[in-house]
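Kindly review this record before class:
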Amino acid sequence: MATLQEVLQEKVPAYRAEVREILKEHGSDVVSTVTVQQLYGGMRGVKGMICDTSVVEPDTGLIVRGRPILELKDVRPEEMFFLLLTGEMPDDEARAALQSEFDRRSQVPAYVWDLIKAMPKDTCPMCSLATGILVMDRESVFRKWYHSGMKREDYWLATLGDALNILAKLPVIAAGIYRIRFNHGSEMHWTHGLDYGANFANMLGIADPAGNFAKLMRLYLTFHADHEGGNVSANTAHVVGSALSDAYYAISSGLNGLAGPLHGLANQECIAWILELMDRFGGVPTEDQLRQSALETLRSGLVIPGYGHAVLRVTDPRFTGFHEFGAAYLPDDPVFQTVDQVYEVIPNVLREYSDERVKAGKHPIANCWPNVDAISGSLLHHFGIVEYRYYTVLFAVSRAMGLLAQLVLHRALGSPITRPKSVSTDWVKEQISK
């Protein structure tokens, strides 16, 4: 198999031809309608954009390029990026070539470290990460080529160069932020010849004599890499990128969206809730303690962190994959045991509370099952990353792969600037009256 760039150069003309044919034959076909509820409800469920890297089906979960995510649990992050872009898994030669690209591009400019170290000590780790990416805009291949008179059909090629540069530097910066922000020493360097996940694990500086933390980082980065195109981080990066802002602007903006408590920050809230439970009950709670505590939480108008999802209506398969990892490598860890106990109890509690809501004339709970955030923090906590304000940075290192893959493909397809039409409440009232 050829290198990533060579594979894409072969596939991009076919991608473009396919879209042209669809538009020619079916450009006026209707694929979605919009209700007033959706107008006011964050456009949830409105089909209004293209994302070929992955889809999330309510009854099955994440599917990457036609492959259910659990089939990819042994895939390394660099292989996942190749798959997202091409729809194919790299052979050994192509994977080695991509690893060499990351080796070559991994050096972080000194001014990035100067900036991060100059920030106040209490700066949020996600702010440091997004700023570290954005300040490297001066390195953008796309920006230089664009101002030199680049042809439109080459936009994707320059964007791929930016994507590879960002991905190579991102784990270095993220690991450095962890070590600097939480007093674990100075930043560490990328090790040539080491795979992407193991490199990130190594640079975080976590003791890992058996190599199990590196296994977790590979799994973590692969599982979080992409989640179709409508989530906040992916959609934000796409909108910014659609203006032909270079990848540094697009990815920094997308990751800023990831920092919200309704998106990537949720993993921090989940582990905090688990640790509070354990503190309240002096260890792993019993089934009855957990049931009563959960009902109190729900009846007070709060939610159970990590349970429910905007799209999914089953247990998130990424939760299942992480649960299998925990059962294999840390079955006696009390935090993991608490997560396991929650999983056994909470779905039934949510169903019970949903029945209460229905009897009271309220809407039932649509999804009583856990998402990935309900478990990921317990695994990180076991290996010593107890600073859970940092967890969203780990999420960001992974999700950047999907954001960048989508950006490259949209540039390859020549996607136009995103500009949906907005309407006013007066317009809605007028339509309703008709």
About this structure: The beta strands are 54-57, 61-64, 67-68. The mean pLDDT is 95.
